[in-house]
Structure formats: structure tokens, C-alpha cells
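Before the break, one more example. Copy the sequence into your notebook; we will annotate it together after we see the structure.
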Amino acid sequence: MKTARYEKLESVPLQNININDTFWNSYTRLVKEVIIPYQWQILNDNVEGAAPSHCLNNFRIAAGEKTGEFGGAVFQDTDVAKWLEAVAYALCEDRDESLEALADYVIDLIAKAQCEDGYINTYFTIKEPGLRWTNLTEGHELYTAGHLLEAAVAYYNATGKRKFLDSMIRFADLICDTFGKEQGKKHGYPGHQEIELALVKLYEVTKERKYIDTAKYFLDERGNMPNYFLEERKTKQYKLIFQEFSKYEPIYSQSHIPIRQQLTAEGHAVRATYMYCAMADIAYEYEDLELLKVCESLWNNIVDKRMYITGSIGSSGYLERFTTDYDLPNDSNYSETCASIGLALFGLRMAKITRQSKYIDIVERALYNTLLSGIGLNGKEFFYVNPLEVWPDSCLPDTSKAHVKPVRQKWFGVACCPPNIARTLASLGQYIYLVDKETIYVNLFISNNTTFKLEDKSVKLSLKTNFPNNNNFKLNINSNKDNKITLALRIPDYAENYKILINGEPFAAGIEKGYAMIDGSFIDDTLEVSFEAPAKFIYANPKVRADAGKAAIMKGPLVYCLEEVDNGENLSGILVDTSIKPKEHFEEELFGGVTTVIAKGKRISGKNWDTHRLYCEHKPKLEEITIKAIPYCYWCNRKQGEMLVWIKELLKD
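Here is what the structure looks like once it is written out:
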């Protein structure tokens, strides 16, 4: 089923955007100053006390520069790929010669490790040279290739240099020659999706049709019967890599049924969202309305029934996966940082295609909460898992909470999240605006200066704001021609009393798909936007058993949490009085300046309790308390302790 051709929106080239934002600078300034240099040291195994990376060592062995054994996981190459992608995005803002030279060194190393036929993968080159493409179920060859492809495209777009791109084109050509529906080719597809969206990016740069056709093939073939992975596991060449896959269920990799029959989000959350990104890309490129509707159904299932209030997804600590509708435990959930990044990428694609602000509402939530909780304010510590409730004493090895860490880690043995955070922060500009030939969509309220090229005119736009501490922003717009353009200003789902002034005069804009639409020439004009987004109590659907009888606090896109350092121990014994409106308080010295939220409530007291008894008939007493909440993204940046998002509600007679 096809739809008439239409133009999707595009992100603005990162070279055209300069971010200088009070809130986001705490993170974005770290990318070049701290995160990229720190991760370079990690990739070279030079950080004491951090889990070894082995990454660059593997490439040096594969390139013949040294001898040794392969180290790390089968997908270890992706760490350096995402690091290179982050470097590419950083170079868009500042063409730093020393950083570029470092990236060129790594690219030369990768090219030297490349096999004659174009193949790149240090695990199979060093450790299993005879087992290429024999374990698509677990081998991550196509996943790894995808991240290398994305990095190569990003580096070419940033620098114009072709060496990395040409190297990866050779690899992509090999993949296209190896996989497909034609006789003599492998009829498989990746166990971990990623190559699909990467091939789309390569197509967009090269205009070579076979790349996007192969991406479509991987999607179309997925889930057909007999199941490729189950059949592959029966072959003599198949070699089990991960013990947890000794029993394999196709639903884990979204290969249980064809993609057009998948209407609920299932299986591994990162695999799922990367696949949904590619599905959206292919739906647009091939004008496939049926596939686009599947994407919409999957999005709605996630957002309405399987997503945490923080924008995190993947509730099961076992196999990092979706479970069932409304199953959202707070203290044992997985909520991998990469999964929220995948959700943001999926939402961005859907916003580009449909021009609906509802997708950006969720993108914003994921970025402000789960992305940022995944990295410490020092840029050198990370969460892989993002729970909504933590009692450090219960985070014990070999238990149901073994995956939950009460403090951020220097690195991980499986370290997909830290470099993923790096590339996301470095490419934050892609989310702020979307454009077509005559319209600028303002999505995120982040201070920046940006130049737009709209068909036959150039537009300079300066956005100034102190969001989310204050709910207003000012746009100064200058155009080089007296031609009309349209500004589409997102009206977020939390905004109240939304107002627009143009050159000081009130303006009543028409609303289209959640955007305030404003037409004008804008030769030299100022727009001022204000709205209210007070701190308020939020409640979950009663079907979410973990949150029944509880309330959370939100202000704009920010979810708030309680920390032990502010509220004492045993946070689960706190009852919040939702009949009293919470108050906001700006603390200039905390986290570089943050709005905290103060609420009233009571604490279950153990003062009258016989400490030697586990149970008794005496009812605990309640003590009046003042509750202090901070943005969830900042938790565990002071000292280790308990954390809680969903607070028990004080019920009154």
C-alpha cells in the first residue's frame, strides 16, 4: 500500500548550529574537554580501575602492528566506532586539528585492519577467521558494521575526507554481495539490528540504490519462516558465543513474525528501537504507508503502555527486554541508556515524516531524563541501567538486582552506553530544529545561534532561554530576503497559558499538529514565547501495579526524584501530601544552578517499634516532614544513597 510522495523534514547540519545553553552546557562542554579524551584513554586501556576495553588493541593486532589474543566481547569494535562518530560531530562545531589528527590515526588503523575483500571485524579476523557470517544470531557482525558505517558517514559529513567512507563503502559492497534474496546469497539478517539504518545513511550520502535496497531486504526478510536463526543454530558451523542464548526465542530479536505484523514492542529494547528507526526510514523512502502505520502502532504501544515516566524503556533485567503492557517495576528495571537513545532516534524520524509534535514530546523527555542520568556531571562515570528506585544495600551480586548499580561506573565490560551518550550529546543539535524548503520547526528550547539555508534564502536565528528553570524563550530572526517563511513553534504537552509576542505585540497563531504556525518575512524580528510549566504531581495508569497509590513530581520535561542526602534513609517510608501544591526553589550553588521542588508529607516512624521484631501488631507513627526533590538526571552526583521517583501518597480520612 503506497502513499503519494511527500517531503520529510530534515535536521540542520551541525556545522550551522552553535549551542550555548545554561542547562545543556554542563554536558555538551564536556564532550570535547572531558568525554572524548577520557574515552580515548579508556579505548587504550589507560584508566586505572576501569573495566578494560581492548578495543584499539584488537585493531592493532588485526592490522598486524602487534601480536596477541582478541580481548572483550564480539562487538568490541563498536566502542571505537561510536567514539569516532562523537569526534565527527564535535569537529562540526570546532575543526580542532589535533582531535582530527587523532581520528585520522584511528581511521588509518581501521583501514589497515580491513581484509582484502573489504571485511572489517577484529573478533572474526583475529579469533574466528573461518566463521564469518555463520552466527548472525549472536555474532554482531552486521551490528558492528552498522556502527562503523554510521561513523564513516558522520566523519565524511564533518570533514569532507573520504578515506573512512571509501573503506566502509568497500565493506558495504561486500555485505550487499553477500546478503539478499538472489540465489547464492545468504538469506539472513542481523541478530542485532543497526546495519539497516546505517545503510540508509550511506545511501543518502552516495545515492547508491543498492544500499537502501539491502536495508529494506533485511527488514522484509526478518521473521519469515522457517526462522533463520533457529535454522542457523542447527548447522555444524554454528558456535555458541553467549551462554544465555543456549535457549533462543526469536521474539528476543523481533524475528518471531514479519515486521509488518508486529504491533507491540517486544524483545530486546535496543534491537527493537534501532529496527523501528530503519522501518521509519524505509517507510518514507519507499512510500510505504502500511509500514508507516506499523511504526505508529509500535510507537503508541511503547509510549502508552511500556515506557517509564523518564522516557526509559526495557523493563526486564533479564535479556534487557520489553515484557508486557503496564509491567514497569521501579527497583529492578533495566532501562538501558542505549534504549532511550534509540527511542529518541525513532521519535526524531517519526517527527520528520509526520510533522507531529507528540514525537518530540517524548524525545525531549528521554533526552532530559534518561540520557543525562546515564552520565555523571564529571563526564567520566556512567550508568548502563537507569532504575527509578534504588536501595544500595539490596543491589547485590547474583540477585534480581545484580544489574542495578548504586553509583556510576568508570566503564563497563560491555560498554555500548558511554560512547553512545558521547555521540548523542555531540549531535544534540539535530533535535533542536527541523526544516523543509520554507519552514523552520523549533522543537527544543535550547539556547543557540543557527544559520538556515531555505531554498533561495538564508536565515539567521538566535534562540535565548533559561529553560527548564524558566519557561520562556526569545527568538531573534534575520533573513537576507523579503520572502515569507513559516516558523513552527512546538507547544509542549506540559505547557499552560502559551503566549507569543512578535516585536512586542501579542500574536494568535494557528495550531497545526502541536505547533504554533507563524508566517512572515522576518527581515529583522523578535519573537517572545512564554508558557507556564509548574511543578506538579503526576499519577500512573492504575494498571501500573508498581505505581498504584503513588505520585511522581514533574516540572516541564524534567522528572524529579528524592535522594537520601536530602531526605534521610528509608525513602519508601515517605508519604507525600498531594493536597498541598509543591513549591519551586532555585538553588544557585547546587549542580551549577537548579530548580528543586519542595513538598509536604509524613514519614513512617520506627520510634515506637521494637527493633528486635520483624512484625508486630503496633501501627507505626507518622511524623510531619518537608520533602526535597531534585531532577532525576542529577541523582547520584553527590554521594551514594537511596533514590526514589514514585512516592507513596498520603491518604487522608
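DSSP finds 17 helices and 23 strands in the chain. The mean pLDDT is 96. Try to locate both features in your own notes.
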